Amino acid sequence: MTVLLSALPKSDSSTSTLYDTVRDIESRPETDGDRLRIMRHAYDEGIPPALRSLECDSIPIDRREDLFLATHLVVVHRPDALLVDRLICLHDAIVATNNARPYHHHRVHGVLVASRRFSAANELRRKFGISVSEVPALELAGGTGPRRLLLSEDGVTDVPWPNQEGWQIVAVVHPHCAPSQRAMSKVMDGSTWSWMLPMLTLLVPAGSAWEEGEMRKWNAHHPTHPMAAEVPGRTPKGVATNETPVFHLLQNGRVIDTLRGMPEDGEALEAWRSRVVEEPMERRRSP
Fold it and tell me: Stretch 221-244: mean pLDDT, rounded?
């Protein structure tokens, strides 16, 4: 399941040159990482200086829609702060000329949710009467270390990543992804996979919808292995979250292997078992 790529309505704008460029790149067969780098390069080369400096009121009116669509397409793949600020800037400029439509508001709201700017998302919802649920109050921590969002009885908390010493397995899953559900059913309910549970962290990728209800249902049934939500830009280096399910094997906070899906009915994960369980035991037995 690919996340952050929801089906969105088309604009009626006929001037979408940059948008067409990045959209064509999006459909190319390169690996995800290479494709995103090419998209970002084409986007950065195609935007005007006024957008770089967040002076969107000085951008010609007939260019704003194309830039909005192109920026949105890039930011849904990688919601970094600079791109989010550019999308907000363009939205404000489009609103100022009375050219904004509901899809403008919905797209910005989704990006604000995905980037964990919950207060701004709620403010946008109220201002434009967007038919979406309110998201919880949340204050993101500063700094640069890895973090995640945990659900509690009191709401949502931004907490540090679990201790990164030794071995860790990060399963990137989504509650609405059928392959994720099948994979986690095997891991959680089968004794075959019990070896990985002490080192397992479940991570739900950031998306335009806040899946709190589904995460709480899972957590109620699996309190020892709750689903946490991604804070974009604050996952351990190398943990990719653009598709689900994906398993990352980390050693001392560094990704050393990745498995996509549940290949060969989980046989590939068995190779990890010998690596993280049986090999260390053999070393301990050695004189």
Answer: 92
Instruction: Look at residue 280 in the predicted model and tell me its pLDDT.
Output: 57
CA–CA dist 67, 92 (Å, integer): 13
Report CA 232 to chain centroid distance, whole Å: 6
Catalogue the long-range contacts made by 137-141 (C-beta closer than 8 Å, 24 or more residues apart): 140/116, 140/231
Mean pLDDT over all residues of the chain? Answer: 87
Q: Which residue has the tokens 């948008």?
A: 19
Per the CB < 8 A criterion, the answer to whether 257 and 249 are in contact is yes
Q: Which residue do the tokens 């995640």 mark?
A: 148
What is the distance between the alpha carbons of residues 154 and 138, in angstroms, rounded to a whole number?
11
- Does the pTM exceed 0.90? no
Cβ-contact 89, 81 below 8 angstroms: no
Torsion of CA 221, 222, 223, 228, to 10 degrees: -110
Determine the Cα–Cα distance for residues 101 and 169; give it in Å rounded to an integer. Answer: 43
**Is the CB of residue 39 less than 8 Å from the CB of residue 26?**
yes
Q: What percent of the chain has pLDDT over 90?
A: 64
